[in-house]
Amino acid sequence: MTPRAATTARYLVLTLMAVAVLLPFVSIVLTALQPSGAQVSGISIPTTWTWSNFADAWRAADFGRLMLSGVLIAAGVVPLALVLAALAGYSLATLNPLGGRALSVAFVLGLTLPIELVVVALYFDLQQVGLTNSYAGAILAETALFMPFGVYWMQNHFASVPAELLEAARVDGARSFTVLRRVLLPISWPAITTLGVLYFMWSWNQFLLIIVLMQDPGRRTAPTGLAFFVGQYSTNIPLVSAASLLVIGPIVVVYLAFQRNFVNGLTQGAVKG
Amino acid sequence: MPDGNTTARRVRRLTALAYVAPAGLVYAGFALWPAVHTAYLSFLHWDGISAATPAGLSNYRSVFTDPAIGPALWHAIVLIVFFAVIPCAIGLLLTALLQGGVRGMTGFRIVFFLPQVLPMVAVGITWRWLYADDGLVNQALRAVGLGGITRAWLGDYNFALIALGLIGTWAMSGLCMVLFLAGAQKIDISLYEAVALDGGGAVRRFFTVTLPALRGEITIASVITTIAALASFDLAFVTTNGGPVNRTTVPGLLVYRLAFNESDIGRAAALAVVLTIVVIVFVTAIRRLTRERP
């Protein structure tokens, strides 16, 4: 094969694969534009383009409220989990705390802990202290579930900072917190941004935890609300498609804005293990 | 370090713990403790309200023998084939074909990674429609003259689990490919030239250079995708909810149902513990299998 033919073949393979990934979305976008309640067949171009499905789905599922709920939870989880993970990662990577090795192992073990194991007792534990149906309860539970990856990520990041940099600051007599704030944080924003973006995605998409902890439908998030909306309107495929696109929309926007962080976070974060 | 400093050092190492404490407390209180508590509940009969009674191992026995629960574990293991094995194979095959890289890879990467960031609920709803009687899958089959085999795939007694699994194949193949392509770019070109000088072709180049070099990436891809297969609650919940006649039940679905619909906390907890053990066994096995041998 000539180099030129090889390149063409590569593009062909990549394009086929990309089409396979995107085709389902083409299908629901076209379906969402069909008249509400219409009998749709596979991929077909709508004869009348109907935009009202989006507004109808938004109202019927009360997405305004669901998304506000999701934003509230994510707005709690992201900063809280970032601060806690950064502090713990900093200490475990550079300060050699007492029992540090055991603590690192305890956090890493959590990477394989299925939510199913946590959620059964968590519901009853939180119920006892009045934290079910509560944003605070959901925020703390998600923060705890995301902590193993965060600590592991920040610990790896701080361990990769050249030791001379830390030594120089210490020789100058800087206290450990000052080293973190003045020396490490300014060079750590890329790692922190990546972790924050992943945290936002995981919180926004969280499903099992929310349907268990939030029995009150008004406090659920967009994906959980969508699952119940589909149960109610399962025969109205254009309306359901529009609802799915409304839930997919925000996370796709965040993904496109931060795609480098997403890809790096999910691939490097994993590979370092 | 001189002796006088050991106390000071101990104090410093104790203060260093203060940085870990907030993360450690939240993690212990809201993840580790509930996990241990679930394990404890698995040895009780409890409906969530009245007093619990000891159950010994009976919850565990019923997890394996109850005809409505036992198959869920098998289904999860079948899903590993579709979520982990096939996507990794596709990823490796395409990496071998694509090696050398192309311009505009960033754009392709954005597309291949897309399924990773979407809520599985929305992915499931999309595929529910694709698999429906009038959906895209059947439309495509009719277009190529296979109209005879069309059906509502997710409602079919024999094909529902496979259909569910193929959603995982769709979602995970891109992840594997992006991981492997990134790994393959780090391979030293001179290694390939050495094989070529030896008279080796593309196949030998793949097996002697590419595959060993991707060991780390293969481990990670298999671990991530296997965990996704075993914990595929969201997807099953919106696509089949376990049907038809329990043909697509997965452990997560039953844990949720037993605990929060049927108030059978003990059995839910026992199933959750068994699921955790299965996850740990698979992850350990993958790490063993792909570990570098001296």
UniProtKB/TrEMBL annotation, chain A:
It is a multi-pass membrane protein. The lineage of its organism: Bacteria, Bacillati, Actinomycetota, Actinomycetes, Micromonosporales. Pfam families: BPD_transp_1 (PF00528). CDD domains: TM_PBP2 (cd06261). SUPFAM superfamilies: MetI-like. Signal peptide: none annotated. Keywords: Cell membrane, Membrane, Transmembrane, Transmembrane helix, Transport. This is Carbohydrate ABC transporter permease. PROSITE patterns: ABC_TM1. It is found in: Cell membrane. Belongs to the binding-protein-dependent transport system permease family. The chain crosses the membrane at residues 66-90, 102-123, 135-154, 183-202, 237-258. Gene3D superfamilies: MetI-like. PANTHER family: ABC TRANSPORTER PERMEASE PROTEIN MG189-RELATED (PTHR43744:SF12), ABC TRANSPORTER PERMEASE PROTEIN MG189-RELATED-RELATED (PTHR43744). Residues 67-258 form the ABC transmembrane type-1 domain.
From TrEMBL, chain B:
Its main location: membrane. It is found in: Cell membrane. CDD domains: TM_PBP2. It is a multi-pass membrane protein. InterPro entries: MetI-like, MetI-like_sf, UgpAE/MalFG_permease. It holds the Pfam family BPD_transp_1. Residues 73-286 form the ABC transmembrane type-1 domain. Keywords: Cell membrane, Membrane, Transmembrane, Transmembrane helix, Transport. The chain crosses the membrane at residues 16-36, 72-98, 110-130, 159-182, 218-238, 265-286. PROSITE patterns: ABC_TM1. PANTHER family: BLL4140 PROTEIN, DIACETYLCHITOBIOSE UPTAKE SYSTEM PERMEASE PROTEIN DASB. Belongs to the binding-protein-dependent transport system permease family. This is Carbohydrate ABC transporter permease. The lineage of its organism: Bacteria, Bacillati, Actinomycetota, Actinomycetes, Micromonosporales.
